[in-house]
């Protein structure tokens, strides 16, 4: 398994993001979910297994101190192997290297596995922020990163 940086224009990243959005629409029971809007300033990491990207996640700077994890997705056939946990750790490392002291994220109340992952990785609930305010299905989490020695 390899975790590598990929541009948002990478065809495998694009395919993973389409799959993620399709799965979110199915999971939310047809509720008005988020619409994917690409951001040029999101840095994507891909998890590559046997030459194929099987998972992705992005990091976007909200401000100088705060990074936001976005678009976490692991193909169903690769779930339960610890890939998402390793991807979260890699995204946190990217955030740390970019000078962020906090990483936050949003997920849906209808995604208990995602909530379980984030809380087990040390994320704590925070008030809904930014574009998620007013969405009754959004829950937000944050984690303070260690300070450089």
List keywords for this structure.
transferase, 7-stranded mixed beta sheet, 149 residues, GNAT_dom, 7 strands, Aminopeptidase, alpha+beta, single chain, acyltransferase activity, transferring groups other than amino-acyl groups, Acyl_CoA_acyltransferase
Account of the 3D structure:
This is GCN5-related N-acetyltransferase. InterPro entries: Acyl_CoA_acyltransferase, Bact_Acetyltransf, GNAT_dom. This protein is α+β, with helices and mostly antiparallel strands and 149 residues long. The protein has 3 helices and 7 strands, in the order βαβββαβαββ. It has a 7-stranded mixed beta sheet with strand order 1-2-3-4-5-7-6, with helices on both faces. The longest helix has 17 residues, at 11-27. The radius of gyration is 15 Å and the shape is globular.
Explain the layout of strands and helices.
Layout (H helix, E strand, L loop, with lengths): L1 E5 L4 H17 L14 E8 L2 E10 L4 E9 L8 H15 L4 E7 L3 H9 L3 E3 L11 E7 L5
Parallel strand pairs: 4-5
Antiparallel strand pairs: 1-2, 2-3, 3-4, 5-7, 6-7
């Amino acid at each position: 398994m390899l975790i590598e940086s990929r541009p948002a224009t990478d065809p495998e990243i694009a395919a993973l993001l389409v799959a993620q959005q399709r799965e979110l629409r199915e999971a939310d029971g047809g509720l008005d979910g988020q619409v994917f809007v690409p951001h040029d300033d999101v840095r994507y990491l891909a998890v590559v297994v046997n030459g194929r990207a099987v998972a992705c996640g992005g990091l976007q700077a909200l401000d100088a101190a705060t990074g936001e994890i976005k678009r976490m997705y692991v193909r169903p056939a690769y779930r339960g192997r610890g890939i998402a946990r390793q991807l979260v750790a890699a995204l946190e490392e990217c955030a740390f290297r970019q000078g962020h002291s906090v990483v936050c994220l949003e997920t849906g109340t209808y995604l208990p596995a995602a909530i379980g992952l984030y809380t087990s990785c040390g994320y704590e609930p925070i008030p809904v922020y930014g574009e998620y305010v007013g969405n009754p299905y959004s829950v937000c989490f944050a984690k303070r990163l260690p300070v450089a020695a």
